[in-house]
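re: the backbone from monday

yeah here it is again, tokenized this time
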């Protein structure tokens, strides 16, 4: 199944990860540039640059394949949710390949299919943890 996957690791270019309440996605990371901005505990916007290692990127691609990210619906939200009006925390995960892109919006109050919610949450946690680990590595070098 992995050999026939529409998203191959040798064609991987980058990923973007954004999150916030409603349409206000002030927290973001772009693996292509390393640009990372987030609101800290004091609600101050922190802008920094954090580059992931190549093996981190490959790991995330393989975990996405393992979790079935390519089969996720484009929007994971409860039926009837108006994304333009909802103020619930959401995550936007986008993987970019040479010929294709997969973008998923995950609204955290989703409760219709528990397994889908759990794997979407797991994917979000993997991305967040990878970025935080890389930031910690960079922080220790300074």
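seq for it, each position gets an aa:
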């Amino acid at each position: 199944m992995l050999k026939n996957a529409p998203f191959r690791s040798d064609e991987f270019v980058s990923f973007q990860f954004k999150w916030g309440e409603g349409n206000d996605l002030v927290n973001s990371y772009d693996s292509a540039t390393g640009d990372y901005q987030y609101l800290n505990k004091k609600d101050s916007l922190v802008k920094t640059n954090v580059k992931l290692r190549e093996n981190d990127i490959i790991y995330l691609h393989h975990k996405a394949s393992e979790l079935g990210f390519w089969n996720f619906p484009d929007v994971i939200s409860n039926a009837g949710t108006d994304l333009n009006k909802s103020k619930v925390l959401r995550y936007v995960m986008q993987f970019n390949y040479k010929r294709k892109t997969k973008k998923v919006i995950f609204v955290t109050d989703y409760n219709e299919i528990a397994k889908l919610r759990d794997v979407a949450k797991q994917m979000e946690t993997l991305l967040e943890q990878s970025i935080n680990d890389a930031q910690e590595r960079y922080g220790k070098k300074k």
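The chain is about 30% helix and 30% strand. The beta strands are 12-21, 24-30, 35-39, 45-49, 75-76, 89-97, 101-107.
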